[in-house]
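Quick one, tokens below:
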């Protein structure tokens, strides 16, 4: 194929958008040279301005939509272009699902080297007000010292003060507005240039009973009277608050929550209903942001296992609050889980006790080390659920999981690239990928959750 020199690409040009990249950019090609275009949809003809040119690709912005794709729609949020969180909101939802399936296919082709059977994406039950974990950075205005909270403008450190976000429950907007107003009245300062008290507001809110846990992340290791008074007002004056906690984070990094959390008012968790069981989710526990879509995954895996196994022995690895393990306990002979975050395991323990589940064993340790110990003691499982963080599994952990599993691995992943890498490794060991089932956990973003069914040969 003829390749074009990057110098020959003009600064402004009109292109047809062919595809969507794994990061949600429209892709156009000029003689093999790739252009990633922010805010462009496959099928669009757009006039673009090229930014920085690299050897094989350039980034670009849309100057004008000359001919819109049939899938292009008006975004329902007026802040969509500024905020940057819902990259795909200008694309019709059904088209988003098709494009996400193509992203998974392209990723598998590029990394795994083949496209296994990939089923149609199971949509999110809700496409608005689905997001149940809200993390707003907080600051204050320079002169009036007004407290502001919202999201950073895409690619900048400029905080956009957000009053309304249609992908989170509407009552969360009210909670945020209340905290901004009362923080100032209580004398709490907003974080600015490494000083000021309140850094983040984190809300975990329940789809099941609509109660919220509020976490005030402070730039200090001490709780001032001002913060105590703010926590008290949130708990007493707002409805449906399950608790208010303070998290201490003085570190100058972009990690939101520090190691230590203290409950100031009420309880340190919310309750969520999954597969007809009530779970507890704390300030620092991992839990999916979209509880209804998460429930779809747990039910899907449960249905799949009950149709294909009779009373299997299941390992739930990277278990979080052991949602898979607890949901699967009634169709399993035994469930063993492993999770490294203590708070998650403790909350799971309470649920196990309250539901009198007797065939589950919870372990609080590193998954790799746990796998090694289980292997040494001669343990094995019919099915292993692997649900690691975005970075995926290490080769060592995959080796152990493979050796521990007799029949199937069900690998649940929020990152198609690391899933494809790990599938490649498992395939080289002799595993067969039965199929991949994508779920839309994150409508209007480029993110996609997948469950891969893998047979141990
Ligand atoms: C994507 S979450 C999945 C949680 C759970 N399966 C669910 O659906 O709610 C990954 C979990 O793995 C845990 N984790 C990360 N690294 C780990 C490790 N090396 N050993 C054990 N758990 C780990 C995290 O704390 C987190 O709870």
């Amino acid at each position: 194929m003829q390749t074009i020199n990057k110098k020959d690409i003009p600064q402004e040009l009109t292109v047809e958008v062919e595809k969507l990249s794994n990061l949600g950019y429209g892709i156009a090609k000029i003689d093999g040279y790739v252009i990633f275009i922010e805010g462009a949809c496959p099928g669009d003809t757009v006039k673009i301005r090229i930014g920085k040119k690299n050897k094989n690709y350039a980034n670009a912005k849309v100057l004008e939509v000359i001919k819109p794709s049939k899938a292009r729609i008006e975004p329902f949020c007026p802040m969509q272009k500024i905020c940057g969180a819902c990259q795909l909101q200008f694309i019709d939802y059904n088209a988003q699902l098709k494009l996400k399936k193509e992203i998974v296919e392209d990723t598998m082709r590029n990394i795994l080297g083949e496209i296994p059977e990939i089923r149609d994406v199971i949509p999110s039950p809700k496409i608005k007000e689905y997001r149940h974990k809200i993390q707003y950075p907080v600051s204050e205005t320079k002169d009036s010292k007004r407290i502001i909270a919202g999201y950073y403008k895409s690619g900048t450190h400029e905080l956009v003060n957000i009053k309304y976000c249609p992908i989170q429950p509407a009552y969360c907007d009210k909670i945020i507005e209340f905290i901004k107003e009362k923080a100032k009245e209580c004398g709490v300062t907003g974080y600015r240039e490494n000083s000021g008290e309140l850094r983040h507001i984190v809300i975990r809110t329940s789809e099941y009973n609509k109660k919220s846990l509020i976490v005030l992340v402070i730039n200090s290791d001490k709780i001032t009277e001002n913060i105590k008074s703010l926590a008290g007002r949130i708990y007493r004056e707002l409805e449906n608050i399950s608790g208010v906690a303070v998290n201490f984070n003085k570190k100058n990094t972009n990690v939101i929550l520090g190691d230590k959390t203290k409950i100031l008012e009420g309880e340190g968790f919310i309750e969520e209903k999954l597969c007809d069981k009530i779970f507890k989710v704390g300030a620092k526990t991992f839990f999916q942001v979209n509880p209804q879509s998460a429930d779809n995954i747990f039910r899907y895996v449960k249905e799949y296992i009950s149709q294909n196994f009779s009373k299997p022995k299941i390992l739930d690895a990277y278990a979080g609050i052991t949602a898979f393990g607890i949901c699967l306990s009634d169709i399993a002979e035994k469930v063993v889980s492993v999770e490294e975050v203590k708070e998650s395991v403790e909350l799971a323990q309470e649920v196990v006790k309250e539901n009198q589940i007797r065939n589950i064993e919870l372990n609080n340790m590193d998954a790799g080390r746990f796998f090694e110990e289980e292997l040494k003691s001669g343990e094995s499982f019919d099915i292993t659920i692997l649900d690691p963080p975005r970075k995926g599994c290490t080769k060592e952990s995959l080796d152990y999981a493979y050796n521990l599993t007799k029949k199937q691995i069900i690998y649940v992943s929020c990152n198609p690239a690391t899933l494809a890498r790990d599938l490649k490794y498992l395939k080289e060991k002799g595993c067969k990928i039965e199929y991949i089932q994508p779920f839309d956990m994150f409508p209007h973003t480029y993110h996609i959750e997948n469950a891969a069914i893998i047979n141990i040969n």
